[in-house]
């Protein structure tokens, strides 16, 4: 009689296949997360470029920068998705007055934007007990009270802030696992 040999995999062969599949899955997940992060940051940088151009055209037309501090982007006003520890959802939470409502700001800026308003990725890059920043925020009179800038939230800890046309200086800080960049676009006293 013929001796029958069993066909199939040994336990060692199965373990090797499982380990190889696990390694490939881990590499794929890491690569996907990197792609997702770069896509979010590209979206924010493109929106930032659009806002810098729109704000520059506004200033050229009106002779001054828009007054106030406001979240930039379609639907990025107060009360959007995501919450801070106090349970509210804002681009910037503060007790300081003088903030423009984002709808009024967006309506004032629409003539200077072709198509829809540039909208950044919704990343939280700076937070503490009283101050949250997400996406992009226009700031009039920040720092020493004379500067106009845009705060940008980027995913991951970037070695440098992305280059944006039309800005004169920038600063960078890390908040948690993300990056927070200030793009200075002018001075209030510019004429």
Structural write-up:
The chain has 191 residues and is of the alpha+beta class. It is 31% helix and 23% strand. It contains 2 helices and 7 strands; from the N terminus they run H-E-H-E-E-E-E-E-E. It has helices at residues 11-62, 102-109, and strands at residues 69-72, 124-127, 132-134, 136-142, 147-154, 169-175, 178-187. A 5-stranded antiparallel beta sheet has the order 1-4-5-7-6, with helices on one face. It has a two-stranded antiparallel ribbon with strand order 2-3. It is elongated and about 90 Å long. Residues 75-90 and 92-100 have low confidence and may be disordered.
CA gyration radius, whole angstroms: 24 Å
Placed side by side, the strands forming the largest sheet appear as 1-4-5-7-6
Structural class comes to: alpha+beta
Tertiary shape: elongated
* Count of helix runs: 2
- How many domains is the backbone divided into? 1
Q: Determine the fraction of residues in helical runs and give it as a percent range.
A: 25-40%
Give a count of the beta strands, DSSP E runs of length 2 or more. 7
Which consecutive residue ranges, at least 5 long each, have pLDDT under 50? 75-90, 92-100
Measured by DSSP, the beta-strand proportion falls in 15-25%
The termini sit apart by 102 Å
Major sheet summary line: 5 strands, antiparallel
**Average of pLDDT:** 77
Taken in chain order, the helices and strands follow as: HEHEEEEEE
